[in-house]
Amino acid sequence: KGKAKLVLVDGRASSNTVRQYVAMCENNDVPCVVLKQSGLLEALTSRDNRTVMAIVDGGFAEAIQEILRKE
Questions:
Q1: CA-to-CA distance for 32 and 15, rounded, in angstroms?
Q2: Given a cut of 80, is residue 58 above it in pLDDT?
Q3: Which H helix or E strand runs over 15?
Q4: What CA–CA distances, in Å, run from 22 to 18, 46, 59?
Q5: This prediction's pTM
Q6: Residues near 53 by Cβ (< 8 Å), separated by ≥ 6?
Q7: Which H helix or E strand runs over 9?
Q8: Which phi and psi angles does 23 have, rounded to 5°?
């Protein structure tokens, strides 16, 4: 199992889910991004009820963060 390099939380996640994952990421020094767009993770993964995604590949995580910074 690899350690997460980035955690993405979908915009429609409950406030409790957001709070839990943000706290967990802060405690483990992992960047956490709460997406503004609702349903984006489902659309990207073609899976229902996807509200949280962990990225374990460092290069991929950096690329995602760079794209999100530009938005």
A1: 14
A2: yes
A3: helix 15-27
A4: 6, 24, 21
A5: 0.88
A6: 7, 8, 41, 45
A7: strand 6-9
A8: -65, -45
Mean pLDDT rounded to a whole number for the chain:
92
pLDDT of residue 47: 87
The sheet with strand 52-55 has its strands ordered as: 32-34, 6-9, 52-55
pLDDT at 71 over 80: no
Confidence at 24, pLDDT banded by 50, 70, 90: very high
Which residues 6+ apart lie within 8 Å of 34 measured at CB? Answer: 9, 11, 13, 18, 22
- Side-chain-side CA neighbours of 3 within 13 Å: the count stands at 7
